[in-house]
Specification:
The chain has 314 residues and is of the alpha/beta class. Helix 6 crosses helix 11, helix 7 packs across helix 10 and helix 10 crosses helix 11. It is globular.
């Protein structure tokens, strides 16, 4: 008789800001968590002193396993793949030694299509989808700042409310990472994408916090036009999403006291002179627009502007 799925052993492949946040919270909540990353200074500091969690929930030190080599970690129940988008294939390959027949693989990265990328390497039978409103920044090696306690969602790609999704959501929530089992994870992912389409490029280009992006009328108009294009693309892709709904969500995010002063991931990348994730955010809208014959001039311009800015980093 098959052993009942009990998601207690967790690996995070890609222990940057969000990976460290997720791993730290789940470890703090009693799960057996291993962080895996190629950043030696970060991993060495965590192995020596623990992971320091700052910001929401207070400053504290979390003793957590960390390694540069996934082969050292053993088999896992759940593998969270959380590098920057361009490193997803390498991270999925790095996750292979962690997989058993029952292992579930999930990513909370921005953008659409990550599940197919990961599934093409680990096997789609292992993959579920995820999205999160959580935010985090790495302050220095071994130190992550938690921006708040915001919801996370997981779900089967076909919309089934499976037992494995229910159990992971329940286990993560009890461990302190508030997680919901979704019956329409594709819609949830697109809602998050819409927020990123609006916030990330403008914040990165203008050095704006989340709360500042709608302060200038001309900038607000461009953002709303980008959302209108993205909504048309979403509907063409079979995801029923109204641009007015996306705008309401955006207004809530930018007006919320706890997030107004946050820097977007793209702004953090720009300030650190790193390549951004523009290709999987607004770039995804442009690619899918071409696929479905929908013009996306505003998103195309935002992609070009960010790409031009990135040229200064090379």
């Amino acid at each position: 008789m098959a052993k009942e799925f009990d998601p207690k052993r967790i690996a995070v492949v890609g222990a940057g800001a969000m990976g460290s946040l997720f791993g730290g919270l789940l470890c703090e909540g009693g799960l057996d968590v291993t962080l895996i990353d190629v950043w030696k200074e970060h991993i060495d500091r965590i192995r020596k002193d623990g992971l320091k969690m700052a910001g929401y929930g207070g400053d504290r030190m979390i003793k957590i396993k960390a390694t540069l080599d996934s082969k050292e970690a053993g088999k896992m129940d759940v593998v969270i793949i959380q590098p920057k988008a361009r490193h997803t294939p390498a991270a999925a390959q790095n996750a292979m030694p962690l997989l058993d027949f029952h292992t579930v693989v999930v990513s909370f990265q921005n953008g659409v299509g990550k599940e197919e990328t990961i599934g093409g390497i680990v096997g789609m039978e292992h993959v579920i989808a995820g999205t999160t409103a959580q935010g985090a920044n790495i302050l220095e090696p071994g130190v992550v700042r938690n921006a708040g306690n915001l919801p996370t969602k997981i779900g089967e790609l076909d919309g089934r409310l499976s037992e494995r999704v229910r159990k992971i959501a329940d286990t993560f929530t009890k461990a302190g990472l508030q997680t919901t089992a979704s019956e329409n994870i594709q819609l949830d992912i697109w809602k998050k994408l819409m927020a990123n389409v609006a916030i990330n490029p403008i914040s990165g280009l203008c050095n704006f916090t989340v709360g500042e992006i709608l302060d200038i009328p001309e900038v607000k108009e461009v953002i709303f036009e980008a959302l209108d294009e993205a909504a048309k693309v979403a509907n063409a892709a079979g995801v029923k999403l109204e641009s007015n709904e996306a705008k309401e969500v955006l207004l809530q995010i930018t007006g919320k006291e706890g997030t107004r002063t946050n820097r977007s991931g793209m702004l953090v990348d720009v300030l650190n002179e790193r390549k951004t994730e523009i290709d999987v955010i607004n770039g995804a809208i442009v690619r899918l627009g071409k696929k479905y014959g929908i013009p996306t001039p505003v998103n195309k311009t935002l992609v070009a502007a960010v790409k031009g800015l990135e040229r200064n980093f090379t």
